[in-house]
Design brief:
Layout lengths: L12 E2 L10 H11 L6 H4 L10 H25 L12 E2 L11 H17 L2 H30 L1 H9 L23 H28 L1
Antiparallel strand pairs: 1-2
Length: 216
């Protein structure tokens, strides 16, 4: 699981195997999507698309969004370390520094920027609206599941963190701190290795969409 959370007071909180406490359908659907989140961009390939509106302006805007998205993912992965590739409910650490002091879901915000970048590059407003709607629904459910798991695992520490840190829109941390405590290390080597794969997936997805649009 991408452990996109931070404990109070700049300290690392550790726990063993966690169990989701909720049984509502959003939690169940969110868990299903969470385990398959790497494949979610494939949904974009299935959408009808046109490149009739593409041009230098859309490409420039898309490039900015893609760079921001990749950059935010790299920082988020470096701060969270191995937790970002988790596929089970076993959460061991609440990340306590870096982008997680600004928002509870920096990596997912980065994903949203990547989806927006791909959609913008094609210059098709209808495709962009549908793609971003799909992202909003899917990741809202994924986050609902993650929050349920994290609350049942870390209890008050996570609830206090969630009360003071936005779910989506970043906010300057209280006191201006962005790092500190024993969890303040960044695994840049891990982030660079893993995000090469993300960049490759983006390039492949974008290429497939362009070929599909021109063939149609």
């Amino acid at each position: 699981m991408a452990t996109e959370v931070m404990a109070e007071g700049g300290s690392v909180v550790r726990a063993g195997e966690c169990q989701a406490s909720g049984h509502e359908w959003p939690v169940r659907v969110g868990e299903w999507l969470f385990r398959r989140r790497s494949a979610l961009p494939l949904a974009l390939v299935a959408l009808p698309v046109s490149t009739a509106g593409a041009g230098r302006g859309t490409w420039a805007a898309a490039a900015a969004l893609l760079v921001l998205g990749i950059g935010l993912r790299i920082v988020g992965v470096a701060a969270a370390g191995p937790e970002t590739r988790r596929r089970t409910r076993a959460v061991r650490t609440l990340v306590v520094h870096g982008p997680y002091a600004w928002t509870r879901n920096p990596i997912y915000i980065g994903n949203g920027l990547l989806w927006a970048g791909c959609a913008t590059a094609l210059g098709d407003p209808r495709f962009a609206c549908v793609a971003l709607a799909l992202f909003a629904v899917a990741y809202s459910l994924i986050v609902r599941y993650e929050e349920d798991v994290l609350t049942s695992t870390f209890g008050g520490a996570y609830r206090a963190y969630a009360a003071g840190t936005p779910r989506w829109l970043p906010r300057i941390p209280r006191g201006g701190a962005v790092s500190g405590g024993p969890g303040g290390a960044y695994r840049w080597d891990l982030a660079w290795r893993r995000e090469w794969n993300t960049a490759l997936n983006i390039a492949v997805a974008a290429g497939v969409l362009v070929v599909k649009a021109r063939a149609g």
